Amino acid sequence: MNFLITGAAGFLGSALANHLAREGHQVRGLDDLSAGEPQVLEPGVHFTRGDVNDRPKLWTLLQDVDCVYHLAARVSVPESILYPREYNAVNVGGTVSLMEAMRDVGIRRVVLASSGAIYGDQEVQPLSEGQAPKPRSPYAVSKLAAEYYVRTIGALWGIETISLRIFNAYGPGQHLPPAHPPVVPYFLRQAIRNGTIVVHHDGGQTRDFVYVDDVVSAMVAASTAPTINGLVINIGSGYETTVRDLARLTMEATGSQANVVYNQQVEGGVSRMCANITLAQKKLNYKPAIGLKQGLRLALERDPRFKG
Ligand code: NAD
Q1: Residue 31 Cβ contacting ligand 1 at under 6 Å
Q2: Ligand 1, residues 28, 53, 71, 98: which to mutate, most atoms within 8 A of Cβ?
């Protein structure tokens, strides 16, 4: 098949692009390199640097494409609180630009990387797709708006759309920006350095950590699965882990002497997150295969930044 992946030089986009290219598919990747790095892409991926709002570039890249994966986005919750206009322009405006270009060229299907963040704080766990979203940040709002846009204009224009609500993905290659790094690579780096691991609040907040290869398997299935047009589907592990336990598991996986401290002044964010993955199991034959202990070990083995 022929694929276009936006955000292809990012953490999840590159894992997907390299996987599809290794499987023998034709893969084009688009990324403006605001966060991504093209050298993570294997030679089989045809990379173009560009903005997802650049419609002429999209028209060219979309020729003969069977399915588009839309991952290009600004991805930091704290940053989105500072720059909501930017998040709206890229995550919402970029999605609409892509949909318009897909309509013009006549593309059949798009898989949107949405986020478990759209749920916000909810009493009922695990989180099911039918629960009313309660986004708590401009990032979450932008992902929810993107979901609504693809589903609504996709139905009007005859484009099949699937939104995957990805929970806390982690694994080799995940970006580690200096400000507000994602929790898993931050803990791993600090553990390897025998430094200090700062846990936000009391560490009692939970997350559903899902290994990158499991996310890739769900994305691959979403390109061809029947009877999923218009659906939103959770992609997580189905397990919730406290951030305190993540720190403990990281210490065990690394044999670290790091100092774990709790910063009660920092808000812990959403208090609980656990994905109900029944719909993914049913519609995508999704079976997450890598538990957190194994996933941390794999991240350590496969990511050169974590070599002692
Ligand atoms: P990432 O930052 O590694 O990847 C995003 C990529 O998009 C980057 O390479 C960046 O350079 C690119 N990009 C940003 N703005 C762009 C623009 N205007 N034009 C073209 N490219 C642009 O993040 P990721 O973790 O790989 O996330 C990929 C997607 O999955 C995002 O849409 C994100 O919202 C979604 N998601 C990720 C997670 C997770 O845990 N990693 C969870 C839920 C949803």
Answers
A1: yes
A2: 71
Nearest CA to ligand 1 atom 14: 73
Q: How far is the CA of 278 from the centre of ligand 1 (A)?
A: 25
pLDDT tens readout for residues 163-222: 999 999 999 999 999 999 999 999 999 999 999 999 999 999 999 999 999 999 999 999
Three-state secondary structure call for residue 153: helix
Distance CA 80, CA 301 (A): 32
d(CA 3, CA 31): 14
Q: How far apart are CA 221 and CA 288, in angstroms?
A: 13
Phi/psi at 197 (5° precision): -100, 115
SS3 105: helix
Looking up tokens 């173009």 gives 48
Say which of 69, 87, 119, 139 is annotated catalytic. 139
Active site residue 83: no
Distance CA 59, CA 61 (A): 6
13 contacts 73 by C-beta, under 8 angstroms: no
pLDDT tens for each residue of 252-263: 999 999 999 999
pLDDT in tens, 60-98: 999 999 999 999 999 999 999 999 999 999 999 999 999
The C-alpha angle with vertex 111 and arms to 93 and 119, in degrees rounded to 5, equals: 75
**Consecutive H or E run containing 58:** helix 55-62
Say how far apart CA 79 and CA 183 lie, in whole Å: 15
- Which of 30-39, 85-94, 119-128, 263-272 is predicted least confidently? 263-272
CA 116 to ligand 1 center in whole angstroms: 14
